[in-house]
Protein backbone atom coordinates (compact mmCIF):
# COMPACT_ATOMS: atom_id res chain seq x y z
CA UNK A 1 0.00 0.00 0.00
CA UNK A 2 1.18 3.52 -0.77
CA UNK A 3 2.20 5.96 1.95
CA UNK A 4 -0.80 8.23 1.49
CA UNK A 5 0.47 10.88 3.87
CA UNK A 6 3.50 11.34 1.63
CA UNK A 7 1.36 10.98 -1.50
CA UNK A 8 -0.85 13.82 -0.29
CA UNK A 9 2.10 16.14 0.29
CA UNK A 10 3.69 15.35 -3.08
CA UNK A 11 0.48 15.77 -5.07
CA UNK A 12 -0.37 19.08 -3.43
CA UNK A 13 3.15 20.32 -4.33
CA UNK A 14 2.66 19.06 -7.89
CA UNK A 15 -0.54 21.10 -8.26
CA UNK A 16 1.01 24.21 -6.76
CA UNK A 17 3.97 23.97 -9.15
CA UNK A 18 1.67 23.74 -12.18
CA UNK A 19 -0.35 26.73 -11.00
CA UNK A 20 2.78 28.80 -10.46
CA UNK A 21 4.23 27.93 -13.87
CA UNK A 22 0.97 28.65 -15.71
CA UNK A 23 0.19 31.91 -13.95
CA UNK A 24 -3.35 30.66 -13.32
CA UNK A 25 -5.21 32.08 -10.34
CA UNK A 26 -7.35 29.09 -9.48
CA UNK A 27 -8.67 25.62 -10.32
CA UNK A 28 -11.99 24.25 -11.52
CA UNK A 29 -13.03 20.60 -11.70
CA UNK A 30 -16.19 18.63 -12.37
CA UNK A 31 -17.68 17.62 -9.02
CA UNK A 32 -19.75 14.54 -9.88
CA UNK A 33 -20.09 13.21 -6.34
CA UNK A 34 -17.97 10.18 -7.22
CA UNK A 35 -14.76 8.88 -5.68
CA UNK A 36 -12.37 10.26 -8.28
CA UNK A 37 -13.78 13.79 -8.31
CA UNK A 38 -13.93 13.85 -4.51
CA UNK A 39 -10.24 12.98 -4.22
CA UNK A 40 -9.30 15.54 -6.88
CA UNK A 41 -11.34 18.19 -5.07
CA UNK A 42 -9.60 17.47 -1.77
CA UNK A 43 -6.13 17.65 -3.33
CA UNK A 44 -6.87 20.80 -5.32
CA UNK A 45 -8.40 22.62 -2.37
CA UNK A 46 -5.35 21.78 -0.24
CA UNK A 47 -3.11 23.19 -2.98
CA UNK A 48 -5.19 26.24 -3.85
CA UNK A 49 -7.87 27.96 -1.80
CA UNK A 50 -9.38 29.32 -5.03
CA UNK A 51 -10.80 25.95 -6.13
CA UNK A 52 -14.32 25.57 -7.49
CA UNK A 53 -16.21 22.35 -8.20
CA UNK A 54 -18.86 22.55 -10.91
CA UNK A 55 -21.91 20.33 -10.46
CA UNK A 56 -23.27 19.70 -13.95
CA UNK A 57 -26.37 17.48 -14.06
CA UNK A 58 -27.44 16.45 -17.54
CA UNK A 59 -30.61 14.38 -18.10
CA UNK A 60 -29.88 11.32 -15.92
CA UNK A 61 -32.14 11.25 -12.84
CA UNK A 62 -29.17 10.09 -10.74
CA UNK A 63 -27.42 13.38 -11.62
CA UNK A 64 -30.17 15.37 -9.90
CA UNK A 65 -30.49 13.29 -6.74
CA UNK A 66 -27.81 10.95 -5.36
CA UNK A 67 -24.89 12.42 -7.32
CA UNK A 68 -25.81 16.02 -6.55
CA UNK A 69 -26.25 15.26 -2.85
CA UNK A 70 -22.89 13.47 -2.70
CA UNK A 71 -21.18 16.27 -4.62
CA UNK A 72 -22.49 18.84 -2.17
CA UNK A 73 -21.56 16.65 0.80
CA UNK A 74 -17.96 16.22 -0.41
CA UNK A 75 -17.59 19.94 -1.10
CA UNK A 76 -19.05 20.93 2.27
CA UNK A 77 -16.71 18.61 4.17
CA UNK A 78 -13.67 20.16 2.50
CA UNK A 79 -14.91 23.74 2.30
CA UNK A 80 -14.88 23.74 -1.49
CA UNK A 81 -16.96 26.32 -3.33
CA UNK A 82 -19.49 24.85 -5.76
CA UNK A 83 -21.45 26.18 -8.70
CA UNK A 84 -24.31 24.35 -10.34
CA UNK A 85 -25.31 24.45 -14.00
CA UNK A 86 -28.01 22.30 -15.59
CA UNK A 87 -26.95 21.06 -19.04
CA UNK A 88 -30.04 19.01 -19.89
CA UNK A 89 -31.58 21.62 -22.21
CA UNK A 90 -28.25 22.19 -23.93
CA UNK A 91 -28.01 18.46 -24.62
CA UNK A 92 -31.60 18.37 -25.89
CA UNK A 93 -30.87 21.28 -28.24
CA UNK A 94 -27.77 19.54 -29.58
CA UNK A 95 -29.67 16.30 -30.16
CA UNK A 96 -32.50 18.15 -31.90
CA UNK A 97 -30.10 19.69 -34.40
CA UNK A 98 -28.06 16.50 -34.88
CA UNK A 99 -31.16 14.46 -35.67
CA UNK A 100 -31.76 16.73 -38.65
CA UNK A 101 -28.60 15.41 -40.30
CA UNK A 102 -28.08 11.88 -38.94
CA UNK A 103 -29.50 9.03 -36.91
CA UNK A 104 -27.88 9.57 -33.52
CA UNK A 105 -26.70 6.30 -31.97
CA UNK A 106 -27.17 5.58 -28.27
CA UNK A 107 -23.41 5.71 -27.74
CA UNK A 108 -23.13 9.07 -29.47
CA UNK A 109 -26.02 10.46 -27.44
CA UNK A 110 -24.67 9.48 -24.01
CA UNK A 111 -21.25 10.94 -24.80
CA UNK A 112 -22.72 14.38 -25.47
CA UNK A 113 -23.02 15.05 -21.72
CA UNK A 114 -19.29 14.59 -20.90
CA UNK A 115 -18.37 16.80 -23.85
CA UNK A 116 -20.78 19.50 -22.73
CA UNK A 117 -19.22 19.33 -19.28
CA UNK A 118 -15.77 19.75 -20.81
CA UNK A 119 -16.98 22.79 -22.75
CA UNK A 120 -18.47 24.25 -19.57
CA UNK A 121 -15.35 23.66 -17.49
CA UNK A 122 -13.10 25.30 -20.06
CA UNK A 123 -15.38 28.28 -20.60
CA UNK A 124 -15.50 28.80 -16.83
CA UNK A 125 -11.73 28.35 -16.52
CA UNK A 126 -10.95 30.75 -19.36
CA UNK A 127 -13.28 33.37 -17.89
CA UNK A 128 -11.62 33.27 -14.46
CA UNK A 129 -8.00 32.38 -15.28
CA UNK A 130 -8.25 28.89 -13.84
CA UNK A 131 -6.86 25.49 -14.83
CA UNK A 132 -9.12 22.48 -15.39
CA UNK A 133 -8.27 19.52 -13.17
CA UNK A 134 -8.85 16.04 -14.57
CA UNK A 135 -10.63 13.39 -12.53
CA UNK A 136 -9.82 10.12 -14.30
CA UNK A 137 -7.84 7.29 -12.70
CA UNK A 138 -5.24 4.91 -14.14
CA UNK A 139 -7.63 1.96 -14.34
CA UNK A 140 -10.13 3.85 -16.50
CA UNK A 141 -7.38 5.31 -18.66
CA UNK A 142 -5.85 1.90 -19.40
CA UNK A 143 -9.03 0.50 -20.94
CA UNK A 144 -10.18 3.79 -22.42
CA UNK A 145 -13.19 4.07 -20.14
CA UNK A 146 -13.62 7.81 -20.62
CA UNK A 147 -15.04 10.12 -23.25
CA UNK A 148 -12.53 11.49 -25.72
CA UNK A 149 -12.67 15.32 -25.59
CA UNK A 150 -15.02 14.93 -22.63
CA UNK A 151 -13.81 13.82 -19.18
CA UNK A 152 -10.56 12.86 -20.94
CA UNK A 153 -9.75 16.56 -21.47
CA UNK A 154 -7.96 18.55 -18.75
CA UNK A 155 -4.95 20.77 -18.02
CA UNK A 156 -3.53 18.49 -15.34
CA UNK A 157 -4.61 15.37 -13.50
CA UNK A 158 -3.36 14.73 -9.95
CA UNK A 159 -4.69 11.14 -9.78
CA UNK A 160 -3.85 9.80 -13.27
CA UNK A 161 -1.34 7.29 -11.89
CA UNK A 162 -3.68 5.90 -9.21
CA UNK A 163 -5.77 2.79 -9.80
CA UNK A 164 -9.41 2.71 -8.73
CA UNK A 165 -8.36 0.63 -5.71
CA UNK A 166 -5.76 3.21 -4.70
CA UNK A 167 -8.28 6.03 -5.04
CA UNK A 168 -10.51 4.08 -2.64
CA UNK A 169 -7.63 3.63 -0.17
CA UNK A 170 -6.61 7.29 -0.45
CA UNK A 171 -10.15 8.44 0.34
CA UNK A 172 -10.25 6.16 3.36
CA UNK A 173 -6.99 7.69 4.59
CA UNK A 174 -8.47 11.17 4.15
CA UNK A 175 -11.71 10.22 5.96
CA UNK A 176 -13.88 11.16 2.99
CA UNK A 177 -17.66 10.65 3.37
CA UNK A 178 -18.43 6.94 3.70
CA UNK A 179 -21.37 7.04 1.31
CA UNK A 180 -19.07 8.29 -1.44
CA UNK A 181 -16.37 5.73 -0.72
CA UNK A 182 -18.88 2.88 -0.76
CA UNK A 183 -21.07 3.91 -3.72
CA UNK A 184 -20.90 1.88 -6.92
CA UNK A 185 -18.65 3.60 -9.49
CA UNK A 186 -20.82 5.15 -12.19
CA UNK A 187 -20.48 7.84 -14.83
CA UNK A 188 -24.29 8.19 -14.54
CA UNK A 189 -24.56 8.75 -18.28
CA UNK A 190 -27.96 7.09 -18.12
CA UNK A 191 -30.13 5.74 -15.31
CA UNK A 192 -29.00 2.38 -13.93
CA UNK A 193 -25.55 2.64 -15.51
CA UNK A 194 -22.51 1.42 -13.57
CA UNK A 195 -18.89 1.31 -14.71
CA UNK A 196 -18.38 -2.37 -13.98
CA UNK A 197 -21.59 -3.46 -15.67
CA UNK A 198 -20.66 -1.50 -18.78
CA UNK A 199 -17.04 -2.71 -18.89
CA UNK A 200 -17.99 -6.32 -18.25
CA UNK A 201 -15.53 -6.87 -15.40
CA UNK A 202 -14.80 -5.42 -11.97
CA UNK A 203 -12.25 -2.80 -10.97
CA UNK A 204 -10.80 -5.45 -8.65
CA UNK A 205 -10.06 -7.65 -11.67
CA UNK A 206 -8.75 -4.73 -13.71
CA UNK A 207 -6.47 -3.49 -10.94
CA UNK A 208 -5.26 -7.02 -10.26
CA UNK A 209 -4.36 -7.30 -13.95
CA UNK A 210 -2.52 -3.95 -13.84
CA UNK A 211 -0.51 -5.07 -10.81
CA UNK A 212 0.51 -8.33 -12.49
CA UNK A 213 -1.89 -10.55 -10.55
CA UNK A 214 -3.73 -13.54 -11.98
CA UNK A 215 -7.27 -13.22 -13.35
CA UNK A 216 -9.27 -15.36 -15.74
CA UNK A 217 -8.13 -15.72 -19.34
CA UNK A 218 -11.49 -14.40 -20.54
CA UNK A 219 -11.23 -11.19 -18.50
CA UNK A 220 -7.59 -10.76 -19.50
CA UNK A 221 -8.64 -10.91 -23.15
CA UNK A 222 -11.42 -8.34 -22.55
CA UNK A 223 -9.05 -5.93 -20.85
CA UNK A 224 -6.37 -6.26 -23.52
CA UNK A 225 -8.88 -5.79 -26.34
CA UNK A 226 -10.29 -2.64 -24.71
CA UNK A 227 -6.78 -1.29 -24.24
CA UNK A 228 -5.88 -1.77 -27.90
CA UNK A 229 -9.18 -0.46 -29.28
CA UNK A 230 -8.96 2.70 -27.17
CA UNK A 231 -5.37 3.54 -28.12
CA UNK A 232 -6.57 6.54 -30.16
CA UNK A 233 -8.09 8.02 -26.98
CA UNK A 234 -4.81 7.96 -25.08
CA UNK A 235 -2.99 9.54 -28.02
CA UNK A 236 -5.58 12.33 -27.97
CA UNK A 237 -5.71 12.79 -31.71
CA UNK A 238 -1.93 12.85 -32.07
CA UNK A 239 -1.93 10.13 -34.72
CA UNK A 240 -0.77 11.46 -38.04
CA UNK A 241 1.11 10.31 -41.12
CA UNK A 242 4.89 10.28 -41.01
CA UNK A 243 7.38 9.21 -43.69
What distinguishing features does this structure have?
single chain; 243 residues; alpha/beta; four-stranded parallel sheet
Explain what the structure shows:
- The chain has 243 residues and is an alpha/beta fold.
- It is 55% helix and 7% strand.
- It has 14 helices and four strands.
- It has helices at 4-22, 35-47, 61-64, 66-78, 88-98, 106-110, 112-128, 138-143, 164-173, 178-182, 195-199, 203-210, 217-229, 231-235, and strands at residues 26-30, 51-55, 81-84, 130-132.
- It is globular, with a radius of gyration of 18 Å.
Topology record:
Elements: H1 4-22, E1 26-30, H2 35-47, E2 51-55, H3 61-64, H4 66-78, E3 81-84, H5 88-98, H6 106-110, H7 112-128, E4 130-132, H8 138-143, H9 164-173, H10 178-182, H11 195-199, H12 203-210, H13 217-229, H14 231-235
Parallel strand pairs: 1-2, 1-4, 2-3
Proportion in β-strands: 5-15%
Low-confidence segments: none
Query: The biggest beta sheet, please?
Result: 4 strands, parallel
The helix/strand order is HEHEHHEHHHEHHHHHHH
Helix proportion range: 55-70%
- How big is the Rg? 18 Å
Shape: globular
Mean pLDDT, to the nearest integer, reads 94
Give the strand line-up of the largest sheet: 3-2-1-4
Please report the distance between the alpha carbons of the first and last residues: 45 Å
Query: What is the tally of helical segments?
Result: 14
Structural class: alpha/beta
